[in-house]
Write a structure and sequence with these properties.
The chain is 56% helix and 20% strand. It contains four helices and three strands. It has a single domain, classed as GMP Synthetase, Chain A, domain 3, CATH 3.30.300.20. It is flat. The chain has a three-stranded mixed beta sheet with strand order 1-2-3. The mean pLDDT is 90. It has 122 residues and is of the alpha+beta class.
């Protein structure tokens, strides 16, 4: 269970990374909507796992967007260092979060099954 300090730092990391991606990166490879789904901090607050969901475009476009964000990792980290009040700036590690997409797919399948049941009942 994360401590209150870990939660506070992860919230700051989430806000700064989100702002950096939407306002400070001008890479043409970034297309669609990029959402920071969650941030997990290590106990010593020196490392942050940042989970991204990328919407819009095809699979290749999403991969390019992720590669562009990964390429800009040090710029994002320097922006984070300017905004965090801590002895250490956490090292960022980006991961593609598939949970949200799987949840949307599950919801779509449930809606599909529901509509088929309603058609059979009529």
């Amino acid at each position: 269970m994360p401590t209150r300090r870990q939660e506070k730092v992860s919230r700051v990391v989430k806000e700064v990374v989100s702002d950096a991606i939407s306002n400070h990166l001008s890479d043409p490879r970034i297309v669609g909507l990029v959402s920071i789904t969650r941030v997990e901090m290590t106990a010593d607050l020196r490392s942050a796992n940042v989970y991204l969901s990328i919407f819009g475009g095809d699979e290749a476009g999403q991969n390019k967007t992720f590669a562009a964000i990964e390429h800009a990792k040090f710029k994002i980290q320097s922006l984070l260092a300017d905004n965090i009040k801590s002895r250490f700036c956490p090292v960022l590690h980006f991961f593609n979060d598939e949970k949200f997409k799987k949840t949307l797919e599950t919801m779509r399948l449930i809606d599909e099954a529901k509509s088929e049941l309603e058609k059979k009942e009529q």
